[in-house]
Amino acid sequence: MSPSRWPVRVRLTALYAAAFLAAGIALVAVTYWLVSTSLTRHIDSTPPHLASDIRLADAVQDEIDTYRAETLGTLLSWSILALVGALVVAVALGWALAGRALRPLHQVTATATRIADRSLHERIALTGPEDEIKELADTIDEMLARLDRSFDAQRRFVANASHELRTPLAVNRAMLEVAVGDPDVSDDLKRLAPRLLATSERSERLVEGLLTLARAEQQVIELAAVDVAHVAAAAVEQEQHEALEHGVTVTTDLRPAPITGSPVLIERLAANLVQNAVRHSPTGGEAIVRTGHTHAHSFLQTDNSGEVLRPTDVDGLFEPFRRGNGRASSRGVGLGLSIVRSVAHAHGGRVSAHPRRNGGLIVRVELPTHP
Questions:
Q1: Which residue has the higher pLDDT, 12 or 128?
Q2: Tell me, what DSSP letter sits at residue 220?
């Protein structure tokens, strides 16, 4: 693996070690040169009283050269061993120092990840010296503040627009119902009235879904103990009539799944999941609803038969007004799984989905027992 792809801590440790090794080699070289020069200056000449005896002088010179070579060799060997030992210690210290230096960055990353998964209202608020990491944390906080304001404005707009649309839609439906009940109404209106009423009801469901979606994307404040199994059972009972009408068999495996959350939003989550499983099952198909508890999470899972989906199609299912073939369902408004995802995220949970082997979809929602 190229050094440019190493983790930052490994690269910092390598830089520390390389700098220490370069300094150590330079120190050994300078020491070796100084000792060699000193030995050469002090013992490189034959004593005057031995100069007349050539053989004795040669012997003395050989001993001097041997002593100098052994001394320099011993110095170099021990210096290299000491350098290797010190390099090992330097790598360990460099690893520890790099970890300590990167600790605030890990804190920034962990907090930013938690904020991205849960709520944009939280801030990193890193304390400490005014260094590069503090500057990075402050920049991320400013970005989060701008995103928070932008998303809040968007949610308020959706909620306000949806709320304003509810009244005229309800008035239109009431007027149609009154007109249909009038014995003097024309035959043309009698033929158009059911279609107009169906369109009005669909529009009301769309507005109600947008309102729920806007509420689900806000931070959950009102918390209470909720058993997802009970909520899922109520959702299944509510959808039994439509399931029988379209020949869909609904089976359940509901085990206790306690959580702490918003009862209203959890009911909407369960209703949308069960409704999605029933409505997208073909005639004669099946829908399975399961709940349970694992470790610190409770889960709600729906399996339904249906058309064969590609793995690349699954992510698009959570987008508003989308389903497997890219269009909103004729019996829904295309917000079901979008609301499920928003409610799960608002509770600190997660949603996963994948196609069934023989066609259909498996959707699993995991919610923390204590958010």
A1: 12
A2: P
**Tens digits of residue pLDDT in 282-332:** 988 999 999 999 888 999 999 999 888 887 778 778 776 555 544 344 455
Copy the structure tokens of residue 181: 């009940």
Q: Which of 117, 136, 162 represents a domain boundary (last residue)?
A: 117
Choose the final residue of a domain: 100, 117, 134: 117
| pTM for the predicted model, two decimal places | 0.54
Q: What is the pLDDT of residue 299?
A: 96
The total number of structural domains in the chain stands at 3
**Helix/strand/coil for 363:** strand
Q: Is 303 helix (H, G, I), strand (E, B) or coil?
A: strand
Structure tokens at 343: 């409610």
Please list, residue by residue across 119-144, b when 16 or more beta carbons sit within 10 angstroms of its beta carbon and e when fewer do: bbebbbebeeeeeebbebbeebbeeb
**Distance (Å, rounded) from C-alpha 162 to C-alpha 156?**
10
Q: Which two tokens stand for residue 105?
A: 């960055």
145 falls within a domain: no
**Tokens encoding 305:** 């038969």
Average pLDDT value for the chain: 80
Rg of the chain over Cα atoms, rounded to whole angstroms, equals: 38
Same domain, 236 and 326: yes
198-226 in b/e burial notation, b at 16+ Cβ within 10 A? eebebbbebbbbbbbbbbbbbebeeeeeb
Of 194, 166, 165, 168, the closest CA to residue 179 belongs to: 194
For residue 76, pLDDT over 80 is answered with yes
DSSP per-residue string spanning 27-38: HHHHHHHHHHHH
pLDDT at site 361: 92
Q: Are residues 237 and 345 in the same domain?
A: yes
Query: How far apart are the C-alpha atoms of 270 and 117, rounded to whole Å?
Result: 21
Q: Pairing relation of β-strands 286-294 and 249-254?
A: parallel
- Checking if the pLDDT of 142 tops 60, the result is yes
